UniProtKB/TrEMBL annotation:
One of its GO terms (cellular component) is membrane. InterPro entries: CRAL-TRIO_dom, CRAL-TRIO_dom_sf, CRAL/TRIO_N_dom_sf. Residues 112-278 form the CRAL-TRIO domain. It comes from Glossina austeni. SUPFAM superfamilies: CRAL/TRIO domain (SSF52087), CRAL/TRIO N-terminal domain (SSF46938). It comes from the Eukaryota. This is CRAL-TRIO domain-containing protein. Signal peptide: none annotated. Pfam families: CRAL_TRIO. Transmembrane segments: none annotated. CDD domains: SEC14 (cd00170). Gene3D superfamilies: Alpha-tocopherol transfer (1.20.5.1200), CRAL-TRIO lipid binding domain (3.40.525.10), N-terminal domain of phosphatidylinositol transfer protein sec14p (1.10.8.20). One of its GO terms (molecular function) is phosphatidylinositol bisphosphate binding. The lineage of its organism: Eukaryota, Metazoa, Ecdysozoa, Arthropoda, Hexapoda. PANTHER family: ALPHA-TOCOPHEROL TRANSFER PROTEIN-RELATED, HL01515P.
Amino acid sequence: MVQPGKLSFDEDNFPYVDLGTVRMCMDKQEAPDWALEVARKELRETPDIMKESFEKLNQLLDEEKHLIVPREETYLKIYLRPAHYYPESAIKRIKNFFNTKIKHPEACRDLLPSKLKHVFDADILQLLPVRDQLGRRMITIHAGKKWKPSQVPLIDLFRGVQVMIWGAMVEPLSQICGGLVIIDMEDLSMTQIMQFTPSFAAMLLDYVQECICLRLKAVHIVNNSYIFNILFNIFKPFIKEKLRKRLHFHGKDFKSLHKHIDKSCLPAKYEGTASWEMPHSSLTYELFHWYEADYEKAETYGFTEEYKKKK
């Protein structure tokens, strides 16, 4: 019998964490047929368009002499799927993504699970073991009382989020269906709020709105009280209309949350009916750490040192 919480491997040698009634894993295999049909309808993923888009994106990458990224179709899909197979949009995202690493080196350095174990040990970032009813990847961020800035600085929390986002970006199913974030503000205090500055808010929202290559379908804020407005006002000037429409504030009204995420996909903590409990984020670390070599490889992509010096 597999012990809950222990890293195990399926018949295809993919790792998973056994939670008793469900397995928490990364979906590395190709997306199922129903999702490929979604890709066809929503992302224009047809053989002819794909062929044309791969060719055009490769041409655009050829013009970027100082940008080093893999050219395999599997990798290029990371950027083409969220861009609905428009190569010009994809190359813009690629350049934005890697330019962010140059503009904000401290916030984007060492994006490796092993370098951020303390973040996951703090139980503030969690990969939920199931997707929502639409196949979207779900992660939770605890930015209230669980987060102790003295133990996990804000910049490390952001780096941990980036590790999780990259994990979703390379999942074929997440590339198609996208993802959502639940931000839990339970017992938020001035201790947490004082960590945020307008410059950090601008950087974070630039990353979310212009850089990540993931279809961010929704951000759900839960357990937010009146004090949350102080924090939100720091971010508000930098939120563009597209993201604004995808922000949902629920407070402690979980029935409101259930209008967006089926109760069967949520644990009891959010008044859901899932058979599993919210997993400790150290289990998320176990899973991501197994893919450390993939993260190390991803760290080698981007602009050349010569280009960085010019910037």
